[in-house]
Design a protein that fits this description.
With 395 residues, the protein is α+β, with helices and mostly antiparallel strands. Helix content is 43%, strand content 26%. The protein is built from 13 helices and 16 strands. The longest helix is centred in the middle third of the chain and has 27 residues. About 3% of the residues have low confidence.
Length: 395
């Protein structure tokens, strides 16, 4: 009103277009739009209220100047992935957001209500509960625990269904458009040509259930909140057998099934073992202050755990390359697959610690564009020095 500001954002510099439609937005046929560039974690521009026609024109101008070739015809229903109700429920179970809902309710009570008045009202009931608690048997306590756990799970399910209801990804030309939300509809647009980093994650429970999550990051910052799932994950949860088709639509170069994985330096497992021992030994040393037997047992347990972790990680950690991209496989409990196309690499660093130099090993770190920090970085550790130098020259 008093200090006027004008900001110019070239269409070609826009990385993401995210929209949010609350119930009032949907009632009035308008939308809130966030434009993100590679300049930082905050949105470059926010349009609180614009019409759907202006949004369509904005998308056409931004993604029309990308210079991408026309895409193949999309699926008949316009979406190549729809999240099933079972996967939404599983995601709610994995996320355990029921605890967050309970914590938020307590914070709201403390902020907007008289906390002293609430304590005065609850004090008599709590005293009676304390008197009756001693008369409750173990089965009654077990039933109360089960009821509390069920309430938390119900809260997690309600959060998941309200946030991820109708989750789908459609491809419009080169634009990947994600839509989800029950009351508040969220939409995130990401051109395939601007994907900087692609990652597939599988936790232990997800592997047992044959599920996986997919994340595609661009150079634009992630200014969304945790509840805005349209940008946080490209695919929050999907069946493992559907990964191939999804990755083909998102990034054809990310063909993990065709990668010839290369093992690390033969001494990598020994290096990992020493690293894990140094990490666990301080905890074992604390047990020696209690008793010799406990200290000896803790030391042996730490050594066994370090040996098992180093062995499993050395077996899973590998890298590979194709004509277009570099790949990494890592993880013990949580497995991770990552892909970076060569044309998206902004900087390369080859580093050697004193132990690396003694073992004739090196580490390569690849950075891509954007403000994602470590999320947009690929690290290849424990490479043989000659292999690392050859790879660095190639990249």
């Amino acid at each position: 009103l008093f200090v006027r500001s004008v900001r110019h954002v070239p269409y070609a510099r826009v990385q993401n277009i995210d929209t949010v439609q609350g119930p009032l937005h949907r009632l009035l046929g308008v939308v809130e739009v966030r434009l993100e560039t590679a300049s930082g974690s905050e949105p470059e521009a926010v349009f609180r209220v614009i019409s759907q026609a202006h949004l369509a024109d904005l998308r056409a101008r931004v993604f029309g100047v990308a210079g991408a070739a026309p895409a193949s015809a999309p699926a008949p229903d316009g979406a190549f992935f729809r999240m099933s109700a079972a996967d939404v429920a599983l995601y709610g179970f994995f996320s355990q957001r029921g605890l967050v809902l309970v914590g938020g309710a307590l914070v709201a009570l403390r902020e907007f209500a008289s906390w002293q008045g609430i304590e005065e009202r609850l004090a008599p009931g709590l005293e009676r509960m304390g008197e009756g608690a001693s008369r409750l048997g173990p089965w009654a306590w077990l039933a109360l625990g089960v009821l509390a756990l069920a309430a938390l799970q119900l809260g997690s399910l309600l959060w998941a269904f309200s946030t991820l209801h109708g989750f789908q990804i459609e491809r419009v030309g080169e634009d990947l458009r994600t839509t989800c939300g029950l009351l508040t509809r969220q939409t995130a647009s990401l051109p395939r040509t601007r994907v900087q980093f692609l990652e597939v994650r599988q936790g232990l429970l997800q592997r047992w259930l044959g599920r996986a999550t997919v994340r595609a990051l661009s150079a634009g910052g992630d200014s969304t909140q945790d509840t805005q799932m349209a940008r946080k994950w490209l695919v929050p949860l999907c069946a493992e057998h559907a990964l191939g088709a999804i990755l083909l639509e998102v990034q054809p170069a990310a063909d993990f099934a065709a990668v010839e994985w290369r093992a690390l330096h033969p001494r990598a497992r020994r290096r990992m073992l020493w690293r894990e021992l140094l990490r666990l030994e301080p905890l074992a040393q604390l047990a020696w202050f209690h008793s010799v037997a406990l200290g000896l047992g803790a030391t042996l347990a730490a050594a066994a755990l370090a040996f098992l972790h180093a062995r499993l990680r050395a077996r899973n950690l590998a890298w590979g390359s194709s004509a277009e991209a570099l790949f990494l496989r890592d993880g013990v409990l949580t497995r991770r697959l990552a892909c970076v196309r060569f044309e998206k690499i902004q900087a390369l660093a080859l580093a050697q610690t004193p132990l690396d130099r003694r073992a004739r090993m090196a580490r390569i770190t690849l950075d891509t564009a954007g403000a994602g920090g470590r999320e947009l970085r690929l690290v290849l550790p424990f490479l043989g020095l000659r292999e690392a130098l050859r790879l660095a020259r190639r990249l």
